[in-house]
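lol forgot to send this yesterday, sorry. struct tokens for the thing we talked abt
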């Protein structure tokens, strides 16, 4: 990705800092760090960061430890790389004192309470008049509308996911274990060039399909069942996410009925996605359809979510906290019906918001055409 893109993003962050009267902004969220710098290292744990960005009006810094020194210099050439050897809070405090930082903003929605306290204590020891404030969603608001390069990367990630699902789909049959199929998905994504799965694959058969976030088990796929496949890959740092529901043999009438209802609800919701529409209104289209069909109590989650560098990111398509959709947002549309002890259905497409509607990014159908 061009360095100009990173520089433009940083300038937009600086505009927000000027509006808020902030001297420096500490970036801790891994996806935000990559979005602004190009530094690719992953964080293994919330409490074990591979680095932080410090954005100021005239300069930008990448603070990391010796493990990532060479990568930081190569991948983030626009940043001054600072290597901390006695802990991050101490290094930040020393740098803040040298740079006369009086008002530091942090991503309060991400930092642990302990790290926030350690930063505050170290900074005030070096500069007693320093103030720490929380700024949430500064970078996330930039990430929500995708740039052309990001959209192409998302397309490539989805294409890989669909290629894998097609290969797995062709070999499906009763008697296979959920856990084995999930591993096949993960293996094929990595062998196909994916950096990782964007989340652990869901393979949920029979009654397990009534669990929206089921964990694959040793259960074997039986005859006349529905099996939910929810999978995604991460490619070029961008995530994909899609769900299809496979039928083993000829499921009974009720399973076919809820499948048809879910598919009709998905199509109806996709038809109203467009720039300027409220996400809660889009959710309501699918939710009301499922309710009117008699299954409103069995669709509990939101209709969809944004995705890009993270598999779940704003905007959320749910019945509360509506957001106005904008052109080139990428969101999922994934209604479902889940009947405890019996089975369930979920169908998920990824769509790009346009001025006049939406572009369904999925090229693989794999939908049944049952009628109610």
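and heres what i got for the seq, position by position
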């Amino acid at each position: 990705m061009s360095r100009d893109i990173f520089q433009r993003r940083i300038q937009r962050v600086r505009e927000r800092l000027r509006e808020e009267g902030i001297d420096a902004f500490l970036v801790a969220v891994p996806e935000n760090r990559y979005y602004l710098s190009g530094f690719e290292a992953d964080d293994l744990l919330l409490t074990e960061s591979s680095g932080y960005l410090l954005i100021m009006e005239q300069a930008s810094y990448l603070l990391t430890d010796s493990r990532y020194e060479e990568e930081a210099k190569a991948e983030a050439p626009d940043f001054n790389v600072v290597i901390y050897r006695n802990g991050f809070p101490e290094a930040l405090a020393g740098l803040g004192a040298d740079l006369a930082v009086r008002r530091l903003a942090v991503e309060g929605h991400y930092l642990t309470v302990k790290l926030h306290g350690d930063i505050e204590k170290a900074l005030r020891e070096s500069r007693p008049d320093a103030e720490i404030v929380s700024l949430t969603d500064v970078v996330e608001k930039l990430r929500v509308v995708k740039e052309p390069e990001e959209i192409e990367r998302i397309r490539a990630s989805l294409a890989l996911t669909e290629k894998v699902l097609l290969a797995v789909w062709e070999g499906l049959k009763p008697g296979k274990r959920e856990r084995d199929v999930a591993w096949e998905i993960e293996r094929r994504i990595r062998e196909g060039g994916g950096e990782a799965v964007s989340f652990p694959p869901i393979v949920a058969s029979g009654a397990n399909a009534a669990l929206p976030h089921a964990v694959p088990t040793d259960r074997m796929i039986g005859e006349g069942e529905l099996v939910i496949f929810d999978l995604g890959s991460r490619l070029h740092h961008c995530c994909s996410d899609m769900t299809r529901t496979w039928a083993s043999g000829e499921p009974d009438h009720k399973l076919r009925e809820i499948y048809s209802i879910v598919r009709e609800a998905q199509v109806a919701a996709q038809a109203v996605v467009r720039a300027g529409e409220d996400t809660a209104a889009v959710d309501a289209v699918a939710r009301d359809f499922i309710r009117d069909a008699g299954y409103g109590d069995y669709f509990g989650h939101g209709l969809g979510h944004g995705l890009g560098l993270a598999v779940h990111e704003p905007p959320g398509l749910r019945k509360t906290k509506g957001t106005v959709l904008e052109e080139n947002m990428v969101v999922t549309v994934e209604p479902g019906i889940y009947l405890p002890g019996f089975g369930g259905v979920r169908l998920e497409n990824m769509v790009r918001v346009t001025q006049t509607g939406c572009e369904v990014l999925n090229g693989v159908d794999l939908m049944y055409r049952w009628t109610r």
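Residues 3-142 form a domain with the Creatine Amidinohydrolase; Chain A, domain 1 fold (CATH 3.40.350.10). anyway ping me if u want another try
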